[in-house]
Amino acid sequence: MWIRLTLSILLFISILLLPWWVSGILALTLLIFRPAYEVIIAGLLIDLLYGNVETLPEMLISFTTGAAALFIVMHILRGRLIFYEYH
Amino acid sequence: MNFHQHSRRDNRYIPRAFWMLLILSLGILFLNTVTNQSISKFLRSIASPIWRVEARVVASPLGAYFLSKESLLKENKELKNRLNEAKLDLLLFPVLESENKELKLLLGRVSGDTRLLATVLVPPHRNKYDTLVIDIGEDQPVSKGDLVVAHPNVPIGIISSLNGKTALVSLFSDPDRETNSLISGVGPTTLVGLGGGNFKIELPRSAVVNVGDVVRLPDLESRVVGVVGEIEANPTDAFKKIIVNSPINIFSLRFVEIVVGN
Fold this sequence. Notes:
The structure holds two protein chains of two kinds. Chain A is mostly helical. Chain A contains five helices and one strand, in the order αααααβ. Chain A has one domain. By secondary structure, chain B is an alpha+beta fold. Chain B starts with a strand and ends with a strand. Classes of the chains: A mainly alpha, B alpha+beta. The interface between A and B is large, with 40 and 45 residues. β1 of chain A pairs antiparallel with β1 of chain B.
């Protein structure tokens, strides 16, 4: 839980202070193990802070929909991955 | 030693919470558009103190500790080379500038514009949109649509949104954005943004364009917006693609000027 919380905080800080690809890596890391809805909120935040979305096509091709697409892809991928614990 | 498998949840279906969040997010984006970016303005007003602090730290001597010695040496060498090249070009500049002013005076066209200096708080590499956030907002005599130039007089974009103390600048090189322009020897053309300070122009194959030709805005000042960098021509195509590069590096911009009332 603490790892997820830390990564989420880092994700939102990186949106303000770091290049976009750092946020991308953090988003991917969050999505690898569990459905991380904060990734979609992060995409929305990028669009609201830096975007100039004024028309419907721009709304459909934005960081929000990109984050949603990444979420779906990782959700499908997670279903096909098996994680083992070593005891 | 035992290897235990994690319990596998049924991942055939996308969770309902995802769809609700997506619809809510798109609704917020739509609401933002309809209310003239009021939500964006509110968020930027919250974020602007953080950006200002970051800009001050980077500009201060403390910021130098975050740069490697090698990158500083490389930047130093590059700047010295550019300075030497610029010195040669500058020899002719005062003569040409004086001649230009005299000719405009003779023709009854005197240009004089008011400019405001602004600090770049958020450069374009922070996001994939070709936008900048600058530290001038509604508290200054600027308005939406004002031209933004980088030193010395290279137009880079226009103010697309104003907040309390910040403004969002939409760059001309924003992907698929179209800007009217002029190429010497060719005439009026349309610059289409490719992102990252690059543009493309489509011209008939018969148009005479060379690498290094200057692309200007069609205004009285004839500001240079780019330089022809590459020409892609296929013998079977009726058109050729011209790649135009900005003469300045938009990712390393720290200061810009706003041409007020343009």
